[in-house]
């Protein structure tokens, strides 16, 4: 077996333009493209002395689309959005509007108070506040040096 070296052209294209466009199109429409990966909403998780906060970016939904469940210490957020079949007689060359469903699960720490969880959905952000147990809250105090 011999090693074959390819010299890249000065314009940066390694394949003929026709093949390059074909492969770029194939890769951008594959399950590994950013568009497909982005179907699971981004999440921010933060903590302060009293609670944990989960913020999930899911614009274009209604609060009725969300289902939040707690099973032991596993908090699961799911959305099932049925696509409406409109008879608008449009002939699409490409259709990408179909945000249908997702599931995100989070293991809550033992310091979380599972009986004190609140959720609200405003401006495309689902905000979930999980309060901490009283014994888990940090108490600030002065330590005396001997």
TrEMBL record:
Domain SHSP: 34-146
Coiled-coil intervals, chain numbering: none
Pfam families linked to this entry: HSP20
CDD domains: ACD_sHsps-like
Cross-referenced PANTHER family: HEAT-SHOCK PROTEIN 20 FAMILY MEMBER
Annotated family: Belongs to the small heat shock protein (HSP20) family.
Name the UniProt record assigns to this protein: HSP20 family protein
Gene source species: Pedobacter westerhofensis
Lineage start: Bacteria, Pseudomonadati, Bacteroidota, Sphingobacteriia, Sphingobacteriales
């Amino acid at each position: 077996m011999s090693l074959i070296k390819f010299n890249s052209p000065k314009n940066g294209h390694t394949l003929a333009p026709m093949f390059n466009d074909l492969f770029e199109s194939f890769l951008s429409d594959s399950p590994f493209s950013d568009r497909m990966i982005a179907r699971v909403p981004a999440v921010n998780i933060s903590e302060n002395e009293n609670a944990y906060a989960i913020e999930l970016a899911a614009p274009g939904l209604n609060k009725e689309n969300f289902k939040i469940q707690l099973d032991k210490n596993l908090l699961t957020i799911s959305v099932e959005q049925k696509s409406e079949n409109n008879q608008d007689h449009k002939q699409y060359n490409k259709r990408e509007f179909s945000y249908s469903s997702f599931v995100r699960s989070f293991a809550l720490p033992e310091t979380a108070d599972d009986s004190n969880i609140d959720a609200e959905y405003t401006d495309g952000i689902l905000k979930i506040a999980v309060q901490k147990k009283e014994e888990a809250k940090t108490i600030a105090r002065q330590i005396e040096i001997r």
